[in-house]
Amino acid sequence: MNVLVINAGSSSLKFQLLDVDTREVYAKGNCERIGIDGSFVGYESIAVEGKQKIEAPLPTHKDAMQYVIEIINATGKDFIGIGHRVVQGGWYFPESKVVTDETLGWVREVAPLAPLHNYAEADAIQVCRELFPDKGNVVVADTSFHYNIPEKAWRYALPRDVVDKLHIRKYGAHGTSHRYIWRAAKEFLGDDMHKLVSCHLGSGASLSAIQDGKDMDTTMGLTPLDGLIMGTRCGTIDPATVCYLVREGGYTIDEVDTMMNKQSGLLALSGISSDSRDIEDGAAKGDANCQMAFDMFYYRTSQLIMEMAQAMHGFDTMAFSAGIGENSDVMRLGVAKELEWMGVKIDEEANKVRSDEVRCISAPDSKIKVLVVPTNEEYMIALDVAELLG
Ligand code: AMP
Questions:
Q1: Nearest 5 degrees, angle CA 184-CA 187-CA 188?
Q2: If phi over 0 gives left and psi between -120 and 50 gives alpha, with beta otherwise, what is residue 76?
Q3: Residue 165 within a domain
Q4: Which protein residue's CA is at the shortest distance from atom 8 of ligand 1?
Q5: Which one of 8, 192, 195, 236 is most buried, by most CB atoms within 10 A?
Q6: Distance from the CA of 296 to the center of ligand 1, in angstroms?
Q7: Number of folded domains in the chain?
Q8: Whose CA is nearest to atom 19 of ligand 1?
Q9: Which atom of ligand 1 is nearest to the CA of 231?
Q10: How far apart are CA 276 and CA 278, in angstroms?
């Protein structure tokens, strides 16, 4: 059963055509710099050999979708429906839902909570409805998996009338990835795993406490700014810092927003880059700021792993995933070392192995099993489409 998965950003549109039964990917790619000079479509497909690049003006997402259609048609594969990644589902998507006029309206209604993403995603859904009138569309929201965490975990200690009126609560993000990580880890460990701390560590990063498949807590909050230190996001800071920056620093609220989302995190700490590879190089050459960026990343991540463990009153497994979690043995070791006091022990040779497979990197006598799980959000989205439309 084939499914087309679309992941639209404000200036990009990623796509993947895959078979949910065999997991075979027939075509995948990214339309980049939509609405900006220098736009192009990069893709791979069973219809052509090697990586392809089409340089073409892409004024809108609709123009980008025309190229996606051509690429998909060239594979000769039909598909049952289209799954759309939506960053913020708000209070409307505790689970994935088929797109109707009403559900599409909900994606727009909650967009103020994620304006950079939801409007573009809603536009992409509308374009797909126009271009593929006979195909169903499904919204798969990043927030769904976290929606039913216990109230003591999602509620904010702010006045009730304010939080009720403005729908303020912990929504989290990366839910589709955390759901996949649980599933893949469970397939790998079976009955040995019940309480997992899932660590999605990419340029955006979050943790999730997952007990027997149910999410119990997560580190991102109302928005994806909360929690861990990320590539360019500061993660958790004293909320009064915002007021102080505005009152005493003279920054506008938009400037603070940009500062916290785009100019902070590993970028600000290292002073050179948001990419962990550059910081690793800097630290290896003795750059003290790069080393401090890593030390803080390890410390904060391990602290929040303990917070997730508390949500489950313990944990038996932790899984590293996403760009940093899957690729950086240095970062994995750094985080694990912080947790050595409570019995986490890494097999340093196993940690260095590079692979696309799920693997165990903890020592046999480690109290906690440590896995590396390559995430696959597209597959998870496709599974939801297959379930709802198949
Ligand atoms: P993601 O958002 O999941 O695509 O992750 C992107 C981040 O992963 C990059 O900014 C890098 O910091 C990190 N990353 C990707 N590849 C590697 C690698 N081979 N070694 C270390 N870090 C990596």
A1: 90
A2: left
A3: no
A4: 323
A5: 8
A6: 17
A7: 2
A8: 327
A9: 10
A10: 5
Q: Which CATH number belongs to the domain containing residue 210 in this structure?
A: 3.30.420.40
Q: Is residue 325 part of a domain?
A: yes
User: Is 363 part of any domain?
Assistant: yes
Catalytic residues, by residue number, are 142
133 and 218 share one domain: no
207/283 same-domain check:
yes
Query: Collapsing DSSP states into helix, strand and coil, what is residue 311?
Result: helix
Same domain, 137 and 213: no
State the distance from the centre of ligand 1 to the C-alpha of 13, rounded, in angstroms: 20
Give nearest CA residue, ligand 1 atom 9. Answer: 275
CA proximity to 124, closest of 48, 204, 12? 12
328 CB near ligand 1 (under 6 Å): yes
Q: How confident is the model at residue 9 (pLDDT cuts 50, 70, 90)?
A: confident
Whether the pLDDT of residue 390 is over 90: the answer is no
Q: Is 94 in the same domain as 233?
A: no
**58 CA to centre of ligand 1 in angstroms:** 27
327 lines ligand 1 (CB under 6 A): yes
pTM (predicted TM-score): 0.95
Q: Count CA within 13 A, CB hemisphere, residue 249.
A: 13
Q: Which of 2, 354, 366 is nearest to 192 (CA)?
A: 366
Residues 352 and 205 both lie in one domain: yes
**Using an 8 Å Cβ cutoff, are 227 and 209 in contact?**
no
Range of the domain at 224: 192-372
301-360 pLDDT, tens digit each:
999 999 999 999 999 999 999 999 999 999 999 999 999 999 999 999 999 999 999 999
- What span, in angstroms and rounded, lies between the C-alpha atoms of 150 and 152? 5
62 & 200 share domain: no
At 315, the amino acid letter reads F
Task: Over range 126-131, report the average pLDDT.
Answer: 92
Same domain, 132 and 243: no
Is there a domain that residue 151 lies in?
no
Which ligand 1 atom sits nearest the alpha carbon of residue 375? Answer: 3
